[in-house]
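Re: weekly structure request thread

Next one in the queue (256 aa):
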Amino acid sequence: MRKTSKVGEIRLIPITLAEEIVPGASIAGKLVEALRRGRQRFHPGDILVVKHKIVSKAEGRLVDLASIQPSAESVAWAEQYKLDARVIELALRESRSVIRRKNGVLITETQHGFLCANSGIDVSNVDGGNTALLLPEDPDRSAAILRRALKKKTGISVPVIITDSFGRPWREGLAEFAIGIAGMKPLRDDRGRRDPHGYELKASVEAVADELACAAGLVCGKLNRAPACIVRGFRYDPGPGAVRDLLRPAATDLFR
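Done, posted below.
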């Protein structure tokens, strides 16, 4: 049985970029440069949390909304709720299925298996509304590539978590979720262990990747120009990791 590890202090260190990320840019290079500017560096045991927007921008996941011709159905839906029909059309194209469409809210399942509004398509923090940003095509692969590039540049192997902000059932507001991961296990399974009262835990599987994503979101924010964060002091479980481990199968999902 795994021993209980002591919980220590966890630090969150935002990484601020001085310029916009453009298609083809080296995210690893930009991050290392920013750390040097701030007289910071990676330490062994660090975790890097990165917002998907800079990953998507570097990978060229940009769509000119002027190139989207919405269907009559998308136009009617958008007009009813004063939305951009082009974004609705793009969200439908990027989806695997539509989960809910009600009161102006479109919840889809993306090709990755994420359940979110508008297939995760965003027009904020891009160019003022003319261009839409898609999620990375394969966020796990993107995380693995970034992890390898950082190790090559720094000599230190750090787990990488790529995040996006989603809404949640039952709760108002957005929270950060892990959508890509490399170098650590996204779940911590405490089943079979006993609490301080001797009770054996039977359902305690903790989504540590999502918790770290949320923690990083507190210092990155939406308007701080800090699209990445170092988490220092968290004892993670090394492993290949995959975001699919965080996705609940439809057969056991009570909310579909």
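The first strand starts at residue 11 and ends at 15. The domain at 11-61+135-250 is CATH 3.30.1330.100 (60s Ribosomal Protein L30; Chain: A;).
Next request, please.
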